[in-house]
């Protein structure tokens, strides 16, 4: 039972959904500004943070009644401005093809996370209904 | 809610590109207009886009049309003494609208509009997918 309720997968998946939603917002912003002079595209960076959060060691317990502290760290992501490039003479650096690809990838990632979350919940339902659900 | 705000961001792009398309349509329609309320031939209009940020000034919230500018450059002169708006030398001042440029602008505006529609649809399908979580 402990494995089903106390695992961090649901929280992680929830954060993945949050992050995908934030990315979607940023890509929409980039696409909306595809014709804005001097606009520089934004990007959500999180990969390093995700790695670091995953590698966190468990909290030290000095007493047997201490909680294990298995709450996962909030996966931090930042929105950064990509000023490294220029696509056009007006200083704009939005590459529509690239944004479209990123948009599609993000959508798939969101759908994948939602699917896994669904399976997680149907697993719980299966247990709750004693295998009849 | 992030997905809703991303839909609003895409909607701001749609509004801005549509307004640009309206201005282009106006420019093409008035490509040979020699009379205006302010006098003289029609002058080509264009939209100036500006990025919109949230109150903190960091996260992007879309795009807006900051201004509609009027192109004050001189248009072409055509020799047509019979024209009612011809000057004393027989020349008629026509608008500074370049049809080719308007056509190119029209295509970029319409493609950008489509890009925003795609982003909006992506957000919508993500939202619908999220509604399926926990459903039997």
Structural write-up:
The complex is a heterodimer of chains A (133) and B (136). Chain A contains four helices and two strands; from the N terminus they run ααβαβα. Chain A is mainly alpha-helical and 133 residues long. Chain A has a two-stranded antiparallel sheet with strand order 1-2. The mean pLDDT of chain A is 81. By secondary structure, chain B is of the alpha+beta class. Chain B has one domain (3-135). Chain B has helices at 2-29, 99-131; strands spanning 45-53, 60-70, 77-79, 91-93. In chain B, the strands form two sheets. In chain B, strands 1-2 form a two-stranded antiparallel ribbon. The radius of gyration of chain B is 22 Å and the shape is elongated. The two termini of chain B are 25 Å apart. The interface between A and B is large, with 37 and 43 residues.
Provide key terms for this protein:
heterodimer, A: 133 residues, mainly alpha, two-stranded antiparallel sheet, 4 helices, B: 136 residues, alpha+beta, two-stranded antiparallel ribbon, 4 strands, 19% strand
Secondary structure elements and their pairing?
The complex is a heterodimer of chains A (133) and B (136).
Chain A: H1 2-5, H2 9-32, E1 42-45, H3 47-54, E2 78-81, H4 96-128
Antiparallel strand pairs in A: 1-2
Helix pairs in contact in A: 2-4
Chain B: H1 2-29, E1 45-53, E2 60-70, E3 77-79, E4 91-93, H2 99-131
Antiparallel strand pairs in B: 1-2, 3-4
Helix pairs in contact in B: 1-2
């Amino acid at each position: 039972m402990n494995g089903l309720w106390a695992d961090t997968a649901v929280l992680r998946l929830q954060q993945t959904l949050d992050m995908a939603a934030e990315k979607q917002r940023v890509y929409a912003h980039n696409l909306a500004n595809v014709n804005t002079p001097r606009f520089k595209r934004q990007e959500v960076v999180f990969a390093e943070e995700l790695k670091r959060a995953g590698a966190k060691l468990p909290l030290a317990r000095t007493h047997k009644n201490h909680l294990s502290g298995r709450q996962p760290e909030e996966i931090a992501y930042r929105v950064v401005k990509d000023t490294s490039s220029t696509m056009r003479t007006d200083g704009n650096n939005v590459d529509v093809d690239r944004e479209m690809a990123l948009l599609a990838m993000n959508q798939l990632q969101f759908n994948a996370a939602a699917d896994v979350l669904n399976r997680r919940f149907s697993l719980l339902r299966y247990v709750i209904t004693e295998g009849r659900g | 809610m992030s997905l809703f705000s991303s839909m609003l961001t895409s909607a701001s792009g749609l509004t801005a590109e549509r307004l640009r398309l309206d201005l282009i349509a106006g420019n093409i329609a008035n490509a040979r207009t020699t009379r205006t309320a302010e006098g003289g031939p029609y002058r080509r209009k264009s939209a100036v886009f500006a990025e919109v940020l949230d109150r903190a000034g960091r996260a992007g919230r879309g795009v807006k049309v900051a201004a509609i500018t009027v192109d004050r450059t001189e248009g072409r002169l055509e020799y047509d003494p019979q024209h009612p708006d011809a000057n004393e030398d027989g020349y008629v001042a026509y608008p500074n609208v370049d049809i080719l440029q308007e056509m190119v602008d029209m295509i970029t505006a319409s493609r950008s509009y489509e890009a925003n529609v795609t982003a909006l649809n992506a957000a919508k399908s993500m939202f619908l997918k999220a509604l399926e979580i926990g459903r039997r």
